[in-house]
Amino acid sequence: MTTYIFFEDALRMLTNAYLLSAVFLIAASGIGLAVIETIEKTGER
User: Fold this and answer.
1) How far is CA 25 from CA 1, 4, 20, 30, 34, in A?
2) What are the distances in angstroms from CA 10 to CA 4, 5, 20, 40?
3) Is the pTM above the cut of 0.70?
4) Which listed site, 3, 4, 13, 39, has its alpha carbon 20 to 30 Å from 32?
5) What torsion do the CA atoms of 11, 12, 18, 20 make, to the nearest 10 degrees?
6) Where do transmembrane segments lie in this chain (predicted)?
C-alpha cells in the first residue's frame, strides 16, 4: 500500500508550516521583549 501526496497538498502544508512558524517567531520575540523590558524596569527602581 503506497500513499501519495499530491504536489498541491504538499505545497499547502509547507506554506501553512512556514506561516505558522513566522507567526510563532513574531509572538515569541514580542513576549521576550516584554519580559526583558519588565526586568529592566524593575532593575531601575
Assistant:
1) 38, 31, 9, 9, 14
2) 10, 6, 15, 45
3) no
4) 13
5) -170
6) 17-36
